[in-house]
Amino acid sequence: MTLTIRDAAPGDEAAFLALWQEFCDGYDLTLPEGVTAFTWARLMDPACPLCARLAVLDGVPVGFALHQHHPSSWVMGDDGYLEDLFVAPEARGQGAGRALIEDLVALGRARGWRRLYWLTEITNTTARRLYDRFCGDDGHIRYRMPL
Fold first, then answer.
1. Is the pTM value of this prediction over 0.85?
2. What mean pLDDT is reported for the chain?
3. Are the C-beta atoms of residues 79 and 70 closer than 8 Å to each other?
4. Residue 123, pLDDT score
5. Low-confidence ranges of the chain (pLDDT < 50)
């Protein structure tokens, strides 16, 4: 069993879209028409800060980490933001989620990011067990207002 982490590429579209649909289904989320295609186009646009890393197990994409970086007013440098992390249920427990986060940590250090952060639902105990291996939560609550 070989697990690798790499950038998503145009040829990964079908595999990514299947994983993305599983991710959305897990949240009981139906996105408005066109959002998924728009997201994929952004991920493939080198000028867009939103990027995708894939976990590939024996040649098959089994997970993704969508991330971006941005300037921060709290540190002398940029923050990395892990926006979405997903591993297909059949591939869980094999280290793909941990490898995706470790990859972003290494990527961020190489690019000079000062911090990496992410959010999860308070009830997502499975993900929180993984995240707690990296660091504790910082006690913040998210507020999100549609514009």
1. yes
2. 94
3. yes
4. 87
5. none
pLDDT in the model for residue 138: 86
Domains in the chain: ranges and CATH: 3-132 (3.40.630.30)
pLDDT at 126: 87
Residues 6+ apart with CB under 8 A from 47: none
CB 96 within 8 A of CB 19: no
Which residues share a beta bridge with 66? 52, 84
Per-residue pLDDT, 13: 98
In sequence order, what DSSP letters do the residues of 27-52 get, joined into one string?
TT--PPTTHHHHHHHHHH-TTSS-EE
User: What angle, rounded to 10 degrees, do the helices at 125-132 and 96-111 form?
Assistant: 50
Q: Which amino acid is at 16?
A: F
Give 1: exposed, middle or buried? Use CB within 10 Å, 0-12, 13-18, 19+.
exposed
Joined tokens for residue 40: 């994929």
Q: Do the strands 51-57 and 60-71 form a parallel or antiparallel pair, or are they unpaired?
A: antiparallel
